[in-house]
Amino acid sequence: MLARRDLLAGAAALAASGSLAAAAGERLSEDALLRFAPLGQVTLLHLSDLHGQLLPAHLREAEINRGVGGARAEPPFLTGAAFRRWFGIAAGTPMAHAVSAEDFERLARSYGRMGGLDRIATLVAAIRADRPGRTLLLDGGDTWQGGWPALASRGAAIVAAMAPLAPEAMTGHWEFTYGAEQMRALIAAAEAAGTRFLAGNVQDREWNDDVFPALHLFERGGVAVAVIGQAFPYTPIANPARLIPDWTMGIQAEKLAERVAEARAAGAEVVVLLSHNGVALDRALARRIEGIDVILSGHTHDCTPAPLTVGRTLLVASGAHGKFLTRIDLAVAGGRVVEHRHALIPVFAEAIRPDAATAAAVAAARAPHAPLLDTVLAETETTLWRRGTLNGTWDDLICAALMAETGAEIALSPGFRWGTALPAASPITMEAVLEQTAITYPNVWRRSMTGEQIKALLEDVADNLFHPDPFYQQGGDMVRAGGLGFVLDPDAPKGRRIDALTLLASGAPLEAGRSYAVAGWAAVGEEVAGPPVWETVAAHLRRLGTVRIAPNAAIRLA
Amino acid sequence: MAAPMGTPRARIPTGVKAGDVIEIRTLITHPMETGQRRDTAGATIPRDIIRSFVARFEGAEVFRMDLHTAVSANPYIAFPFRAERSGRFEFVWTNDAGETARLTAELRVG
Amino acid sequence: MPITAHIGRRTALTAAGALAAAAVLPPAAPAATRTPTEVTIAKIVGNRAVNQGRIAIRLPAIAENGNAVPLTVAVESPMTAADHVKTVHIFADANPFAEVASFHFTPACGRAEASTRIRLGETQDVIAVAEMSDGSVYLARQEVKVTIGGCGG
Questions:
Q1: What ipTM is given for this predicted complex?
Q2: How distant is the Cα of B16 from the closest Cα of chain C, in angstroms?
């Protein structure tokens, strides 16, 4: 279990630093965001799940992020006021806006957009200048996918935009969806810019040999720091395996334990796991594997305003889309970490000067596509968001488009956690649509499914999310459904989590034996031939002109 | 007709010191036909699997495996061996029809 | 737990992980209601007692591809002439034929551990039965989930 007193101590320490001390309504300055009393020999910086988000954006946290069993009452499975209270963050403050969806519309207007790669670059440069020879910038992956510049360049534009930041190491997940060959080319480009791709849990399917280096030993501040990379273990299941046909992945806890031992044997005084496992799985691994000092946890887009602790392991998550940069300073003595200091730095775009080199790289990445991206498709009167255990309004819009454009009775859309939010009364541009949809397997499908098959699919996804053992949890959120109502009970046994399935068009219960016309996109099995989903959504938006979507009341938790 | 036995391959570690317990890895191309599948005409495709694998070192059996239909196509087999001296491995795969594939590989202990 | 610790190995796995290696004994069902797997295991075991522990079955928690699921089985043993693992039998309960493979070890192996890739048609338990040189028998089981997939964040 988490040591709550450690968390509270962490929160108290954090409250004294710049980012939490700001009062409600107060604007933060760059200096305040960077305020940090340096500690020890090593500074780790963690950036994860950028999802190709080069520009500042509105990013709305989940209202519901449901965990199962005992995990339900702990971070990361707390949201809103409960999350704030756990970490000692006052309502209405900049940090409250960064970590919760409370009062989103008003605070989004007040504090402005977050992220922006050029702002992150400024923070990184300032910290590196303050801590020369002591700093490691580590990228948790899901960096090269997301948005149109990434997809149109098959990741190359993001690799180029990251080059001025030059993280010392990274791992991956969606990077694999460009296919093995392109990924190798991108890794070569990243390595030329000084970024090592580390992943100990990717092996070739023939001999089971490692495809990538698992770890690298860095020296910072006279201390040997081992960084072990762990790519998203379920990539070949959650994403199309056909894109990486020769590679196999998995959690591989024993192998990871061996890597930790190997790192220590090679003289590592600090062992860092740069992970794309997600927080729940990383916490379970930390309980099982000794000897990891810091887990930098990506994938689930959670953020930790103070480190979670599991025994002697610090577990830190840094949000997504460039919203946060984590800094941890470590004091090392006698071959072990003796003290740490941490800050989750919220990247308030208006408070931070853009780094010129990165701003130029971002502009270069976007410029060729500006006419397409700036196209206004419609106006939204209500907030559009995605993040949350159940359907967000962006998902409802995508599902409505799928049904309207294909004539299907039911739509299914993946429970991706990436994607930006649009406040009410915003124009919906093609750029915003692509931020929700740009993947390498975007094609729309339409097929006939029986009620029984639909139920089985929902149950299968639910078990991948709400299995009581974190080793079986794949992260992400529940598959989004349109035209369907149901009640989800995450704590119910496998095969019995979905209840009261209703076809909304008729109000009748879904019949096991009847066939329904179902549309969807992002099929992980065989390739499908339909149009890319952004075209379907754009066509629908042009027809609508104005969007007004109430939060989904047909799909709810038990 | 049994499928051809395919090409056997083996990977023996290098830089081995006496007393090391090493992992020997082998692969052979073979469909491992289960006898459960039907062809496009609806006829059952007859069972045809590799049913045994034997590893010998300098003539003495060190490891053996019985395979059934649930072993995947192109069987991968890895097993440990305590390296005490240099010598020659012989690996033999045998199918349902009694046909064999053989491979020898040298172990060098430094 | 999806992955069991390999006791005595040079890993930093915790005691909690090691405890997960405890096996579940096959139910003492009447002979008439036994599954084919239970009947086969009963034939191997004979009238010997079935012990828990010592076996680690390493499988992915969730299979990427049911046609080729990587399997490693390891049994704690000194692997001496006097005390070693002779055979480890692997079963997949829900497959059309439960027998998957048998690994026959000798003291020359130095360690009782073998890997292969197996076919699993659906979510099920993989069972390992180890026969030791002293005649004792150990059993362990490990669940593998075979999923439709999709939707990862």
A1: 0.95
A2: 14
